[in-house]
Amino acid sequence: MTAEVFVSGFGVFSAFGFGPDALLAGAFAGTPAFRPVTRFDVSHCRADRAATWQEADAYFLDGRHDVGTVEVAADCGRQALDMAGWRDPAELPLVLATKVRAPSLEPESAAGTTARVADRLGLGTPRRTFVNACCAATNALIHGAQLVRTGVAGAVLAGGAFLVDRQAFGLFDAAQALADDGRLRPFDQDRKGVLLGDGAAMMLLESGESLRARGAEPLARLAGWAMTDDAFHVAKPHVEGAGVAAAVTGALRRGGIGPDRLTYVNAHATGTPFNDAAEAAGLHAALGDHTETVSVSGTKSTTGHALEASGALESVISLLAIRSSVLPPTAGLDRPDTRHPLRHVTAPERGDVPYALSLNSSVGGVNAAILLAAA
């Protein structure tokens, strides 16, 4: 017998600051958080902007930016535990997404970061780490949900954390993937690339039995999820979005709904020509005739791309859309791409959101989707 999985608490951090109110005032208003990078030298780079939280710059100036990742992840974890009213952290496993660190620059492993976050919060075991780039946090949430669903744990703290650093910025800049005009414009015909952003989010995933035992109320239900790999190319997505379509279809099927009941998609939407085109094609393939009725936005246009943490950040945004009955917009969408057109949210929209899907893709054709439902 399998258990339903609920979200009973969450914590979130972005360039707008800590907590849901900062996110609602920023991303949900459609205000981009990009600013000139000051935490390391970008004078030799093509691009010079990212969505960074200025107070985090101090971690980089003193050479201890790994401490910053632990701090923001632990703070989000505390937010989640406090919101859920969870009293005994030692009972909780941790599943964390974080970046693979360059040994020459940062001797601590990604698993070491997870251990430090867990120790900071007084969490139990197991402690598991995901590092598979842009899908890492989505996969961490899915893994946590599987632990709850199969009865391995009654509750799990899961999510991810990322701070923009020299290594990630330099790699994206060298690949000419960063938008040199300082704007991340998903699905726009004139899009020029991605921009990075600080981000972290943690969710307390809990079974109905655990909720009832402690008299707690859920915030949302984690209704469905799916992971796929189109195995098309080491970097490029499948041109028709085959893996995206399979992930969306799988998440809806596990959630027991059809495309006609889906309200909103928070797309991966990196603002790169290949990714956006493939994602739009995949959404058409999965949603069929219902594509024109499902609202879609790309909130990286305001928060930036939080890499390993992006799936957790965007799952929280999707949860907030359900809770607030407001759809966050895609910023800077002036000329929507006419190939595989979508129903874009270009300004904050009010309306009931019974189901929201958060979608992420990564290099190597990896895709992951999480379906959240009103509790």
Descriptive overview:
With 375 residues, the chain is α/β, with parallel strands linked by helices. The chain has two domains: 5-213, Thiolase/Chalcone synthase (Peroxisomal Thiolase, Chain A, domain 1), CATH 3.40.47.10; 225-374, 3-Layer(aba) Sandwich (Peroxisomal Thiolase, Chain A, domain 1), CATH 3.40.47. It is 32% helix and 21% strand. The protein has helices at 20-26, 57-61, 65-84, 110-121, 136-149, 166-174, 208-213, 242-255, 273-287, 300-303, 310-324, and strands at residues 5-14, 17-18, 35-36, 49-50, 94-97, 127-130, 155-162, 199-207, 220-229, 264-266, 295-297, 326-327, 343-344, 349-350, 355-362, 366-374. The two termini are 21 Å apart.
Descriptive keywords:
single chain; 375 residues; alpha/beta; Peroxisomal Thiolase, Chain A, domain 1; two-stranded antiparallel sheet; 11 helices; 16 strands
What is the CATH third-level topology name of the largest domain? Peroxisomal Thiolase, Chain A, domain 1
Mean pLDDT: 94
Shape: globular
- Put simply, the count of helices is 11
Structural class: alpha/beta
| DSSP strand tally | 16
| Domains (count) | 2
The helix-strand sequence is EEHEEHHEHEHEHEHEHEHEHHEEEEE
Strand content: 15-25%
CATH class of the largest domain reads: Alpha Beta
Give the distance, in angstroms, between the N- and C-terminal Cα atoms. Answer: 21 Å
> Any guess at the CATH architecture of the largest domain?
3-Layer(aba) Sandwich
How are the SSEs placed, and which strands pair?
Blueprint: E1 5-14, E2 17-18, H1 20-26, E3 35-36, E4 49-50, H2 57-61, H3 65-84, E5 94-97, H4 110-121, E6 127-130, H5 136-149, E7 155-162, H6 166-174, E8 199-207, H7 208-213, E9 220-229, H8 242-255, E10 264-266, H9 273-287, E11 295-297, H10 300-303, H11 310-324, E12 326-327, E13 343-344, E14 349-350, E15 355-362, E16 366-374
Helix pairs in contact: 3-4, 5-11, 8-9
